[in-house]
Amino acid sequence: MVFKIKPILTARQLRRAKWTCAFAASMLTFLGVLSNFVVDAADDEAPPKITWQKEQWYSMDVQEYPRGRIVYFSKNTEVCQSSLLIPGVATLSRGMLAVAYGLCLCYLFIGISIVAEIFMEAIEKITAKQVIVTIKDEAGNEKQRKILFWNATVANLTLMALGSSAPEILLAVLETVTSLGKCPGELGASTIVGSASFNLLVISGISIYAVSPENDNDDDRDEEMDKGVKRIYDMRVFAITCTSSLWAYIWLWIVLMDQYVKVWEGVLTFVFFFILIVLAFGADKVTAREAEKKKGADAKDEIPVIEYSAYEIYKDLLIEQRGGAPQDEQSVQKRDKMKRFLKQTMNTEQIDKVSLDELKKIVEGEGMISRIKYRKQINTFMTGKRPVIAKYEKMKLEHAHADQLDENVKNDDFGFVCLHYSVSESSGKLAIQVINKKRDVGRVRVATVDGDAKAGEDYDAFDGVLEFAKGEYSKPIEVGIKDDDNWEPDEDFFVQLYNADTNGELVGQDTKTRVTIIDDDKPGQICFQDAKAQKVAPTDDYCEIVIIRKNGSDGKVTVDYETIQLG
Predict the structure, then answer these.
(1) Which among 207, 392, 505, 518 counts the fewest CB atoms within 10 Å?
(2) In this structure, are 414 and 320 located in the same domain?
């Protein structure tokens, strides 16, 4: 498959990128030259050389083991030794060690990113907690409002900072605890300072540099601002956090002027953190109060409040739509309340016309930690994981678009907009766009082709002819997706374009698209209710062993079992 490179940078951005790369290369060259002078100066003060087998060495180390010893001779001023290394591995060539260490670091980085993602999801769950409070308006009428339990500013300064900086915090704590009373190593406070400097300078710079009028097209952008311009929502909080960041470096320099960190200095540094939280929280409250006065009656007061979660509403109404909901009075009243909420907020009672993400925004509001979704996307891309979807969640994703193909491998007349779709089996149907490139009067036959997914079992077969009028560019076809409660691996089927007169397949790489049906069923795990040994009297006729199914119960499962004589 041939792809063409799409210009993702404007000429101005490309020029900036070139100058940035040139500057970085110049700095690296300067540091390399400077390091040679430093090494030469260090060589003048190097310790006496050690002679062994007529060869000169700078350092030596002996490792004792129960069955012998290993003596290391090194050309460096210190022998590179660690309890994490296999004995003798430090004597291998530097090139081989560089490749091996690089691969290990990449593997560890992926592992850390997975752990950090889980940690961030836990923090997101904590900060998403909401409570329903009763307030009185100016007329004295009581109204209910759903608010976040956590203050956004406090959460960002505490939980968010802890989650995003957990790896370097752990490294610094381990290094500090293991080297108390000694000269700190490379992973102590230097890790925190380096990370903070990187965030303050590099991340902030890239974030500002990346925004331009050409790419500032987010749906949630501030329409009051010109494209390419971002507004600081709360200047008070920003001023406090920015000043605190600069003061942190100044205070660290003051503390380390005498090369010692005293106990009272450490305690005072910790107290500064709580002062920052209190000041930022106060500034946030002042800004919120001013915004409420300026806005008058808060628009959120007009949004109905419901005590159920978005997922609970989604699941219950979908089950009812499929005829499997309980019909007791309490359940019916609960679903009626959910329908009224949908009608008031989204102008529909049909849950299949609403996406789970849209419903979450209405019920739970915008997530306090919105950047978690970008972490998930990167980790999913790096680790090759399939998307994780909830039961009954409607999900439709487009992966490969036809405009990434080179023109000479595409069909001249007709084609698909997207070449690979992913859809959850609960989605019900999938709309696939077919385009008429020349906008002339024309006909094209569209038909589904089985892959792992089979027509009639996993999806509804489609075979029809699309007729385009003069000037008509695109037309959709809808393919029904069948849902069941049985677990099965993700399955594919294809949609192919044919000549409407000869029924031959059209030539071109954009005349066939793949559809992946993602299973959302969770069969669960089978285990013993009591994993410990069960005692039975010799006089008993039988022994009852209970087997349970947990973490999911979709579909029918069978279990094979046998008894094994131990003695």
Answers:
(1) 207
(2) no
